[in-house]
Amino acid sequence: MSSDSSGNAALPCQDMRRRYRKKLFVIVIFSLVAGMVYWLYQYDHRIDTSADDLLKEALLECYKTKPQIRGQLHSDGPTIYAITPTYSRPVQKAELTRLSHTFMLVPDFHWIIVEDAPSPTSLVTKLLLRSGIPHTQLVAATPKKWKLKEKDANWKYPRGVIQRNRALEWLRENLDANRDKGVVYFADDDNAYSLEIFEEMRSTKGVSVWPVGLVGGLMVEKPLLNATTGRVAGWNSAWKPERPFPIDMAGFAINLELLLHHPEAKFSFDVEGGYQESEILRHITTRDKLEPKADKCTKVYVWHTRTEPPKLNQEQLLQKKGKRSDEGMEV
Q1: The pTM is what?
Q2: For the chain, what is the mean pLDDT?
Q3: What is the set of domains in the chain, with CATH numbers?
Q4: What's the CA gap between 110 and 106, in Å, rounded?
Q5: Contact, 294 vs 200, CB < 8 A?
Q6: If 304 and its partner were Cys, which of 41, 105, 215, 297 is the partner (CB 3.0–4.6 Å)?
Q7: pLDDT tops 70 at residue 25
Q8: What burial letters (b/e) apply to 212-233, b meaning 16+ CB within 10 Å?
Q9: DSSP conformational letter for 247
Q10: Which residue is catalytic, options 277, 279, 291, 315?
């Protein structure tokens, strides 16, 4: 009797212990998983913070040696409106990606991309959204008679005229000279830009100018200053030096208010090759009013690099067979 009684009494206790062990096991596993998740979060956070600290240290060290870009990450200056005409070609995404990675580092910046197309392309749209840069995407198709054919020399017809004018229209339609403060810059997608150039142009009161590297058949094309007044007296341009403003598109910026007060200032198909810069500048300034930048035009912060068209002979052979190496991909 006593043996049966004690055996029967032990069964409920064993069941309780089993249930307790299960609960304890679940609690321990849950705690371990939660702890692991928290540790991973903290670990990732420490990595990010460490990377941020390293970046800040590198930038601070850069600012010590290059005071002209000090304060670059926190500018309270006017907005820079960079106008970039672009068109579909094999290197388009590569060019715009490289350009966007520079523009990401420029504060108070608005990128106006104008596609030479009848409607916005997904390639440009996605690139702009991924960049996180404040932007406006526009389209303006070049008339067929002004369109360069594949084997035409790039100087046969002026490029970007319709696109730049469309961007100027957008500025005049959406901005107010009495309210909006800014600087307008024509930033082509085949150039290379140092961050210093954007800080240089930010203080533009009228039209500012500076040297441009690798353009016009020269290592550098630059304004020449009067030794006494410090004002622009001419250029060292070797290509059509008789132009009113023998300057590259990348070599000047215009104060937004000044541009908005001169609605007639725009580009034109009806001017001689190489005169597009002079065509817009003649409406808003004179040579003696130009503002030399880049340490009295002694520094080069922008280069007219131009990417070489890729050789795609193997791709062309592949396409003749009805295939593509980039099938289902965006290059």
Answers
A1: 0.76
A2: 85
A3: 76-303 (3.90.550.10)
A4: 9
A5: yes
A6: 215
A7: no
A8: bbbbbeeeebbbebeeeeeebe
A9: -
A10: 277
